[in-house]
């Protein structure tokens, strides 16, 4: 019984943990960003894909446990794009987010110049754009121009706010040099948060007019909520999805960009580090890595990725396409 609770029966294509609870979502995203999947060999990947194919076609060898099937699915989902069936370029996989945080460390370095601020903000938004594109929803063709539009908007807003705030702080004569330095360290957060909102708005504004996919309990698309009814239900749902995603994108960088700043402000006052300034950068990098590793899965687990709506609120053509009383739609992360 304890074993069953620890490892539920395998369901192909479904999350291993309950997405209705914070703990379930946390365990789910810890699996998704697990950097150990970066070291899976080609043979291991092929074995995992074969095992899942055997399960799908009912030819599973005897003795294969649910745990083995969950692990195989975890590895496949971490490496193979679900829509294209191709391998995701390693640096842009979700499991590479924590190992590839050099641009986050750069954003949090003290005593930034205008040029270094621009370079680090550009690198961060470029990395974000590549991750978003590599893990995009490829079931519908998305014009490259839309990705470029979102990328340009994110870079422009991030650089503008970061540089603007730094200039304002430097010209604030009433602030002491120590206060000015501490406040400057918090600048990356509003810059990145605003860029995230801008990116979501530019990339997903078409959902307000085109509608969004709704799915049944098995994850099958039963229709697109797009025809405007008297209450403009599709517009309300799309707007709600975009606003929830934007709010998530504001909360996401908060612990990542705020906690290391607070911790380092305290550590830098220690006499040990005052005497050994060369250790500042490696300790700063370690603090960033630690906080990023702990806070990232917590931040993305705060809100469920899927939202639910009753079928009775949808258009008749969608309602007759499913026997479910409610359907779900992906609001994004």
Total separate domains? 3
**In percent, how much strand structure appears in the residues?**
5-15%
Mean pLDDT: 82
Tally of separate helices:
15
Q: Share of helix among residues?
A: 55-70%
Radius of gyration, CA atoms, in whole angstroms: 23 Å
Category by helix and strand content: mainly alpha
Shape: globular
List the helices and strands in order. HHHHHHHHHHEEHHHHEHE
**Biggest sheet descriptor:** 2 strands, antiparallel
Q: What is the count of β-strands?
A: 4
Strand order of the main beta sheet, please? 1-2
Residue ranges: pLDDT <50 for 5 or more in a row? 1-5, 227-231
Distance between the termini: 34 Å
Keywords: Amino-acid transport, Membrane, Mitochondrion, Transmembrane, Transmembrane helix, Transport
GO biological process, one term: amino acid transport
Protein name: Sidoreflexin
Subcellular location: Mitochondrion membrane
Describe this structure in words.
Its main location: mitochondrion. InterPro entries: Mtc. The chain crosses the membrane at residues 96-123, 150-169, 246-267, 279-303. Mean pLDDT is 82; it is low at 1-5 and 227-231. Strand 1 (212-215) and strand 2 (221-225) form a beta hairpin. It contains 15 helices and 4 strands. The protein folds into 3 domains: 22-80, no CATH class; 89-204; 210-332, no CATH class. The chain is globular, with a radius of gyration of 23 Å. It is mainly α and 333 residues long. The strands form 2 sheets. The protein has a two-stranded antiparallel sheet. Strands 3-4 form a two-stranded antiparallel ribbon.
